[in-house]
Amino acid sequence: MSKSFTREEVARHAAEEDLWIIIDSAVYDMSRFIDLHPGGVFPILELAGKDATDAFYGLHRQEVLIKYDRYKIGTIANEKPQIEIRQPGAISKVPYAESSAWMGFKSPYFTESHFKFRAAVREIMGGLEADFRELEQTDGKPSDELMQKLGAAGLLACNVGPGPHLRGINIPGGVKADEFDYFHEEFARVVPRGVDDGVIGGFVISIPTILNFAKPHLREKIVPEVFSGKKRICLAISEPGAGSDVANLRTNAKLSADGSHYIVNGTKKWITGGRFAHYFSTAVRTDKGLSMLLIERSEGLETKAIRTSYSPSAGTAYVTFENVKVPVENLLGVENQGFKVILSNFNHERLVMLMGASYAGRIAVEECFKWANQRKVFGKRLIDQPVIRNKLAGMD
Ligand code: HEM
User: Fold this and answer.
1) Separation of 392 CA from ligand 1 center, angstroms?
2) Alpha-carbon span 320 to 250, nearest angstrom
3) Band of the pLDDT at 230, cuts 50, 70, 90?
4) Which intervals hold domain Cytochrome b5 heme-binding (predicted)?
5) What is the assigned CATH class of domain 3-76?
6) I need a labelling partner for 117 at 20 to 30 A (CA). Which of 8, 128, 203, 295 fits?
């Protein structure tokens, strides 16, 4: 049971080596943390033994308190917290932070199956939220264990969107494969952007090339491996000299003398999930046009991390191919007609990304609303400034 203290007791712990503070009626022992505090010793020392609620919320997001919960030693007797701690996966109460259907408004797009799916996914993902945030702080590689948990929960397959690939998948909430549509999209809501890209972004944009264009025996091998989280795949199209300009790709594949292999040489850049991928669905130049090849990580294929400003978890990679041998049966679709594969894939990719982006946009609005309400400057909250309210109104 949590210990109970009076404010007078807390006030007696006001030295650097014995330092308690109060945040929203909870008591934190900062003695061991003060030297590690990213904001330095001074700001906490100034508030030693005192109520630091306003100072804390003016400078930190609530997640900081949840993460450092271990320093909480008790509560103030006869006081109740005034600030609600958001439970992982809970529906946000901030205006526009959620789809209006979740906030009690009628929507023609959301049916019972969406509600069941949302509740089940938030429960699964809520349980993993701390792992995801931790992941973003470290080297960023989503573990095999995490991938396999997501796979077993059916979430990897669901993120590809509706389609025959969902038959036989245990969809969260007991949703049937033919009920599933693009509005069953919950992942982005609880997963930080970089982790989202590293866990599903690279794979969601690449696995359709296997589902739709791989030879049956390859499809039957690779799809279950990827959907169960045991193997990872990425889409390797852009290059240092040709980003969106797909027609100018230079990575090339030449048929071996006996016609059994392609020999691939070239480079790919900004490949999401590439650092961790086992398979690369790769655009290459063949003798009369572009082709798509499924390339396994093998001799001659190397990946280097590209440091991005947003997150190491996205696994963004620079990929080099040096005389990589690829069996001809790994051709996706028809030789020299890879452009069709790429464009049909882009259609799907943009739709899935759009759903994710709409969630990400809602999260941005939510974070701004919350910060404007808690951050105090010039003697008042940011939200009390008309110019800030005007900006928020412009975001909706
Ligand atoms: C449980 C207590 C506290 C914890 C766990 C904590 C933790 C942190 C962390 C993790 C940061 C890095 C920035 C971030 O992630 O938001 C930070 C920054 C900071 N903290 Fe704290 N802190 C605590 C209490 C306080 C208090 C009471 C003050 C007093 C004013 C304070 C002042 C600051 C300042 C000035 C910064 C730098 C903010 C910036 O970069 O603009 N912290 N703190």
Assistant:
1) 25
2) 12
3) very high
4) 2-77
5) alpha beta
6) 203
User: In the prediction, which pLDDT does 157 show?
Assistant: 93
Between strands 380-381 and 261-271, the pairing is unpaired
- Residue 56 Cα to ligand 1 midpoint, Å, equals 7
Nearest residue CA, atom 12 of ligand 1?
38
- 233-342 folds as Butyryl-CoA Dehydrogenase, subunit A; domain 2 (2.40.110)
The overall average pLDDT reported for the chain is 90
The model's pTM is: 0.80
Q: Which residues line ligand 1 (CB under 6 A)?
A: 21, 23, 28, 37-39, 43-44, 47, 52, 55-56, 59-61, 64, 68, 71
